[in-house]
Amino acid sequence: AEYMGAAHKPFAAARSDLLALATVYATWERLRHSSGNAAAKSWAVASFVSDQSLFNISATRKKLRALLREMGFAGHGAALNANSENLRVVRAVICAGLYPRLARVVLPPRTYTEVSAGAIASDFVDPKQIKLFTPTERVFVHPASLLFNASKWGTSSGVVAYYEKFRTSKAFLRDVTVVTPYAVMLFGGKIRVHHESARLTIDNWLAFKSPAKVSVLFNEMRREVDRLLRVKVEDPRIDIAASPAIRGIVELLTTEPGVL
Prior knowledge:
- The protein has about 260 residues and is of the alpha+beta class.
- Helices cover about 45% and strands about 20% of the residues.
- It contains eight helices and ten strands.
- Strand 2 and strand 3 form a beta hairpin.
- Helix 5 packs across helix 6.
- The two termini are about 30 Å apart.
């Protein structure tokens, strides 16, 4: 287990089990094309990753891509991967796809380090002091997750998306991804604006500080996105990626301050 943890550690930087898996797959795929199947398999074995599972993922990707093209939802060329390297946009897609599987993260009080000019706040926390909650219960990151011992979560997020929740000795989350407030506000549940306290809530439980004008703006953007998606479903040939609303959302997610 110690060697396995060391082998997987390079993939943990994105604070997402799913993004780590995507990095593993991309590395394996590059090796297959550049050095052949044998070299890719040797790398997988050394990294404690199943070579056969990666082949299965490759086959599933091909089938999904073919199906989307047949339905008219995917074309060809670089435009398909325009934001594939923009992790903030990818995290938002994960948030949208997994919603409502979110948990609120409660971090311990920040610590400060004394320096000659004063004190500097630390972004690192004791993993054992991090608490996670769904609307109904306290939950825990599963020990198999790359985030289990993570000491840096991003100080202004406070939310994770997860693929699976199950119970043994306690309720565990598997395949966890740290997501940002903008992603939740854009692709989460029903927004309720609390003018008197300058905050908004999502589905009456996830709360974010937000001036009323900003909250109203997010509501309007979500309505426009819903409209565009209806248009796309009705006629998949229509390209909505170049619309001002979609470009604005990508810009918002990319420039969101104080996260990750």
